[in-house]
Design brief:
The complex is a heterodimer of chains A (about 400) and B (about 500). Chain A is an all-alpha fold and about 400 residues long. Helices cover about 75% and strands about 0% of the residues of chain A. Helix content of chain B is about 65%, strand content about 0%. The chains are: A mainly alpha (about 400), B mainly alpha (about 500).
Chain lengths: ~400, ~500
C-alpha cells in the first residue's frame, strides 16, 4: 500500500507562471496609470473602475469558497471532505483581495470620484430630491464602516472556520469529541452564513455596485450578484481540484466528486439565468423609465454585444455542454467549462460596473485583461502557498470516509 | 465499488432491528386494518367542510361573484390569497422528491410519499379559486388556447394569468405522474398481500401489473430520473409565474424584481410547514416513529428556518427599496399601508413578519427543532404567516393606489368567501384521509433501499469501520477485507 501524497509542494512552473501573470498585471497597471490614471476625470474613472470590478469580482468569487464550505457544513454534507482543503485555501484570498477592494473603494469615496459614484457629488445631491433622500444610506461614513465590517468579518469568520478544520489533522475523534467537533463547525458555519446573507445577499452589492447608478434600484440585484459570484466560485474550486489531481494529489477525489462539482456549475448557471431573466423580464415588461434606464444602453447601445455575449457564455454554453453526465465527469471538458464560466461572469461584472461608469464607450481592452492577469496571478500564487501549508487530506474528519466511497 | 458505509455520527433513518419484511408489515398495516375511530371522526369533519364549501360555491355560481365582498379597488381578495397559499403549499412534495433526490438527502425517503400526495391535493385546492372566480364557470375552457370557431378570439398570451394555466397544469400532471409511478411497486406489495379477491383485483389494476422484475425496476428507475429532471425546473417555474401575476404590473408593492425567487422560497417554506403538520400527526396515529424519526423532523425544521430567513431577507430588501427608491408610491405602500401597524391593514403585515420571520428563528436551537409540540405549533404558525403574506401583498397594494378618490373601503370577507376557503380544507383532508387509508403513506421500496445503509441495526454493524484509518479504508479493495458486504445492492 503506497502512502498517499498529503503534502503539496508548489511546482516551480506554477510559481513562474504566477510571477509572469503578476508581472504582466503590474506592467498593465503602471502603463494604465500613466496613460489613463492621470488623464481627464472620465479617463481616471475608467482606470479605477477597471481595477474596481476586478477586485470586487475576485473578492466575491474567492469568498464563495468559504460560503461553499459553510453551507455544506450546515447541510451535514460528507462528499466534499476529500477535497475541502481546496476551497479552504481559496478562501484565504478573501483577506488579500478584500484589502485591495477596501483600499480601492475607500480611495474612490474619499477622493470623491463622482464619475464613479454620482452620489459623491455634493452639489448634485443638494439639487436632487431623490439623491438627497437616499443620503442616509449613500454616504461616505456608512460606506466606509460597512465596507470595513463586511470584509473584516468575512475574513475573521472564514479564518475561524479554517482554524477548526485543523483539528481534523491531529487525532481521530471518538463518540464524544466527534459530535462536538461537528457541532462547533455548525455554529461557526452558521455565523459566517448569516453574515454572508446580510452582506453578499443584500447590502454589499447595493452599496458597492448598484449605487454606481445612483438613481436606479432593483430588489433582485444582490441575489443576482451572489449567483454570478457563486457559480464562478464553484468553477474555481473545480479548476483547482483538477489541477491537483493532475499533479497526483487528492487521491480520494475522483470523477464522482468532479461530477457533483459539475452539477453545481450547471445548476447555478441555470440559477443565475433564472435571476437574470426574472430581473430583466420584469423591468422590460412593466417598462417604467426609472427602471429601464439601466438596461437601455446595455441592450440598445454600445454594450449590446457584451450583453448578449454574457447570456451566451453564461447560459447557453453551460446548458448545452454541462447537461450531459459524461461532460461533468470529463476532466478536460470541466476545465474548459470552468474557465469559460469564470470568464463569462468576469464579463458580467465588467458590464455591471463599466456599463455604468462608461455608458458611451465599451472600454474592454488591454487594461482589463492586464488587471485580470494581475488578479489571476495573485490568486494562483497565494492559493498554492495556502495549499502547501496544510495536509491536503482532512485525515480524521468524521465524514471523510463517506467522501471516499462517494458515488453519484 | 459500492460499499455500505455511513458515519456513526449520523442518526439512523430507520430505528430498530428491521428486516425488509418488517418494513412492509409496519407500513402496510394501517391499510389492511380497519380504520380507527379517530380516522372516521377526522374524515367526517373533512367531508362536512367540503359540503359547506360546495354550498358556498353553489351560492357563488348561482348568484354571482357579488356573494363575495370583493369591491373596487380590491378585485382580488381572499380568493387569490387562498389560491397562492395553496399553490405554495403544493411545492414541498415535488421539492422533496426531485430536488432533495438530486441533493441525495437520504431522509427524504421517510416523508416523500405523503408530501407528494399532499402536493397533489394542495394544487387541486388551489385550482378551485381561479376557476370559480370566473363567475361564469361554464366558460372556463376559454382559458385554453384551442383552435376555435370564434374567429380571431384567442387567449392573451401576454398575460401571466395565462402562463399560470400552463405552469400549474403542467406541474400538476408531472407531480401526479411522479407520485403515481413511485407508488407502483408499493401498490403491488399491497396486492400481493391481499386476502380477498376484490382487493387483489383492485390493487392489481392500480399497480399496472407490476411484477418486480429487473426490467420493471430498470424502467422504473429511468422514469424516476426523467421525471425528477422535469420536476426540478417545474418546482421553480410554478411559483415564479404566480409571482409574475403581480410583478409584471405597475402596482406599487407588486412590481419588484425579487418576487420570483422570493415567492419560490416562501412556497417551499409553507410547503414544508404543511408536511410537518401532517407528519407529526401521521407518525403518531400510525405509530411510525421508527420511520419518521426525530432526525426527519429536525431536518425539515432546518429547511423551515432556512427558507423563513431567506423570505425574511426578501421582506427587508423590499422594505428597504421602498425607501431607497425614493418612489413615493412604493414608499407609501411599504411604509404606510404595510409597515405602519396603525394603518388599516398594518396588523396583517406584522402578523406576517411575526409568523414567518421572527418565530421560525427558534429553530436555531436544536432542542426546539426536536420538540414535537413546538414543531407542530410552529408549522401551523408558519402557514398562518404565509397566508398573511399573500393577503398583505394583494390587499394592501390594491386598497389604495395612485388615485386617492378611488381608495376603497375596508375589505373583509363574506361568509361564502370563508366557506369556500374552508371547503378547500375539506377537499384537502378528505383526499388526504382517503390516501392514508388506501395507500402506503411511506414509500416502502425506498425505505428498503436505504435500510441497510442507515438502518439502526445495520449501522451498528459498521461501527468497526470508524476505527479503520482512512488509508486502509480507501485501499480495502472491494470491501471484502473489512466490510461486510451483504450483496443486497
Amino acid at each position: 500500500m503506497s502512502s498517499i501524497k498529503e503534502q503539496f509542494e508548489i511546482p516551480a512552473k506554477l510559481k513562474t507562471w504566477s510571477y509572469a501573470l503578476i508581472g504582466v498585471g503590474l506592467l498593465a497597471l503602471i502603463v494604465g496609470f500613466i496613460t489613463k490614471g492621470r488623464g481627464t476625470e472620465e479617463e481616471q474613472a475608467v482606470f479605477i473602475g477597471t481595477i474596481m470590478y476586478n477586485t470586487i469580482f475576485w473578492t466575491l468569487v474567492t469568498n464563495a469558497s468559504m460560503f461553499f464550505i459553510c453551507i455544506t457544513t450546515l447541510a451535514m454534507g460528507g462528499w466534499q471532505q476529500s477535497f475541502r482543503r481546496i476551497p479552504e485555501a481559496i478562501s484565504t484570498m478573501v483577506p488579500i483581495f478584500g484589502s485591495i477592494t477596501v483600499v480601492v473603494l475607500l480611495y474612490v469615496v474619499f477622493s470623491g470620484n463622482h464619475h464613479i459614484y454620482h452620489w459623491l457629488d455634493t452639489n448634485a445631491v443638494a439639487s436632487d430630491e431623490i439623491l438627497k433622500g437616499k443620503s442616509g444610506f449613500l454616504n461616505v461614513k456608512f460606506f466606509t464602516i460597512w465596507t470595513l465590517l463586511a470584509v473584516g468579518l468575512w475574513s475573521l469568520l472564514g479564518w475561524r472556520m479554517r482554524q477548526l478544520s485543523n483539528e481534523a489533522d491531529v487525532a481521530a475523534f471518538n463518540g464524544e469529541t466527534g459530535p462536538s467537533f461537528i457541532w462547533r463547525n455548525t455554529v461557526r458555519a452558521a455565523m459566517f452564513t448569516v453574515w454572508f446573507a446580510l452582506t453578499v445577499g443584500s447590502t454589499v452589492p447595493w452599496l458597492w455596485l448598484m449605487s454606481l447608478d445612483a438613481h436606479w434600484y432593483s430588489t433582485m440585484y444582490s441575489w443576482y450578484t451572489f449567483a454570478s459570484s457563486f457559480v464562478s466560485g464553484m468553477s474555481l474550486i473545480a479548476l483547482w481540484v483538477i489541477y491537483m489531481k493532475n499533479k497526483g494529489y487528492l487521491e480520494y477525489t475522483n470523477e464522482e466528486h468532479l461530477h457533483d462539482l459539475g452539477k453545481f456549475m450547471f445548476a447555478f448557471s441555470i440559477f443565475w439565468t433564472y435571476l437574470w431573466f426574472s430581473q430583466y423580464m420584469l423591468i422590460w415588461y412593466s417598462n417604467q423609465p426609472e427602471e429601464t434606464l439601466y438596461f437601455k444602453h446595455r441592450v440598445q447601445g454600445v454594450y449590446k454585444g457584451i450583453f448578449f455575449l454574457n447570456l451566451i457564455i453564461n447560459f447557453i454554453c453551460p446548458l448545452l455542454i454541462l447537461m450531459k453526465r459524461s461532460t461533468k465527469r470529463n476532466y478536460t471538458l470541466v476545465t474548459f467549462m470552468a474557465v469559460l464560466i469564470i470568464f463569462g461572469h468576469w464579463i458580467d461584472f465588467y458590464q455591471m460596473v463599466m456599463g455604468s461608469i462608461s455608458k458611451e464607450h465599451v472600454t474592454l481592452g488591454w487594461l482589463d485583461f492586464g488587471i485580470l492577469s494581475l488578479f489571476v496571478g495573485l490568486m494562483i500564487l497565494f492559493v498554492a502557498k495556502a495549499l502547501a501549508k496544510k495536509p491536503l487530506i482532512v485525515k480524521y474528519h468524521p465524514f471523510l470516509k463517506e467522501s471516499i466511497i462517494h458515488h453519484t | 465499488m459500492h460499499l455500505k458505509y455511513e458515519s456513526q455520527l449520523r442518526e439512523p433513518l430507520v430505528y430498530g432491528t428491521k428486516t425488509y419484511h418488517d418494513v412492509t408489515e409496519d407500513i402496510v398495516r394501517p391499510i389492511e386494518a380497519k380504520p380507527s375511530k379517530l380516522w372516521y371522526i377526522g374524515f367526517y369533519i373533512a367531508v362536512a367542510l367540503l359540503l359547506f364549501g360546495i354550498y358556498s360555491i353553489y351560492r357563488d355560481v348561482t348568484y354571482g361573484i357579488g356573494q363575495w365582498n370583493l369591491n373596487k379597488t380590491i378585485g382580488w381578495g381572499w380568493d387569490i390569497t387562498n389560491f397562492v397559499w395553496w399553490v405554495g403549499i403544493g411545492h414541498a412534495g415535488t421539492l422533496i422528491s426531485a430536488i432533495l433526490l438530486l441533493f441525495r438527502q437520504g431522509w427524504r425517503t421517510g416523508v416523500n410519499r405523503a408530501a407528494e400526495a399532499m402536493t397533489i391535493f394542495a394544487v387541486m385546492c388551489a385550482g378551485q379559486f381561479p376557476i370559480w372566480h370566473m363567475g361564469r364557470v361554464w366558460m372556463a375552457f376559454f382559458v385554453l388556447p384551442y383552435a376555435n370557431t370564434r374567429g380571431p378570439l384567442w387567449v392573451n398570451f401576454n398575460s401571466p394569468l395565462l402562463w399560470d394555466v400552463f405552469a400549474i397544469s403542467t406541474y400538476f400532471t408531472v407531480s401526479l405522474l411522479f407520485w403515481y409511478s413511485g407508488l407502483l411497486p408499493d401498490l403491488a406489495t399491497v396486492r400481493d398481500r391481499a386476502k380477498t379477491k376484490l382487493r387483489k383485483h383492485l390493487y392489481g389494476v392500480a399497480s399496472f401489473g407490476w411484477t418486480g422484475s429487473t426490467k420493471h425496476w430498470q424502467r422504473h428507475e429511468s422514469l424516476s430520473l426523467v421525471l425528477a429532471g422535469l420536476s426540478t425546473p417545474l418546482v421553480l417555474s410554478v411559483h415564479t409565474i404566480v409571482s409574475f401575476d403581480f410583478a409584471t404590473s405597475v402596482v406599487p408593492g407588486w412590481h419588484t424584481t425579487i418576487f420570483p425567487p422570493y415567492f419560490v422560497a416562501g412556497a417551499i417554506f409553507s410547503g414544508f410547514a404543511m408536511v410537518q403538520s401532517l407528519m407529526v400527526i401521521i407518525r403518531k396515529v400510525f405509530g411510525m416513529e421508527d420511520y419518521i424519526t426525530m432526525g426527519h423532523i429536525e431536518a425539515m425544521n432546518k429547511v423551515i428556518v432556512l427558507t423563513g430567513s431567506i423570505v425574511g431577507v426578501a421582506y427587508l430588501t423590499e422594505l428597504f427599496m421602498g425607501w431607497y427608491s425614493q418612489n413615493k408610491y412604493e414608499g407609501y405602500t411599504f411604509w404606510y399601508s404595510r409597515a405602519n401597524l396603525f394603518s388599516p391593514y398594518g396588523w396583517s403585515y406584522w402578523g406576517m413578519m411575526a409568523c414567518n420571520v421572527l418565530s421560525p428563528q427558534i429553530f436555531w436551537f436544536r432542542k426546539m427543532r426536536r420538540n414535537l409540540f413546538v414543531t407542530f405549533f410552529m408549522s401551523v404558525i408558519v402557514n398562518i404567516g404565509m397566508w398573511f403574506e399573500r393577503f398583505v401583498i394583494i390587499v394592501t397594494s390594491l386598497y389604495r393606489d395612485y388615485l386617492p378618490s378611488a381608495w376603497s373601503v375596508y375589505y373583509s370577507p363574506s361568509i361564502w368567501e370563508i366557506g369556500f376557503y374552508l371547503g378547500t380544507f375539506g377537499l384537502f383532508f378528505t383526499c388526504f384521509f382517503l390516501f392514508a387509508k388506501y395507500f402506503p403513506v411511506i414509500a416502502i421500496a425506498e425505505i428498503k433501499y436505504v435500510l441497510k445503509t442507515t438502518g439502526e441495526s445495520y449501522k451498528g454493524k459498521m461501527g468497526h469501520l470508524e476505527h479503520v484509518p482512512a488509508e486502509v479504508f480507501a485501499h480495502s479493495g472491494h470491501g471484502h477485507t473489512i466490510v461486510e458486504n451483504d450483496g443486497a445492492n
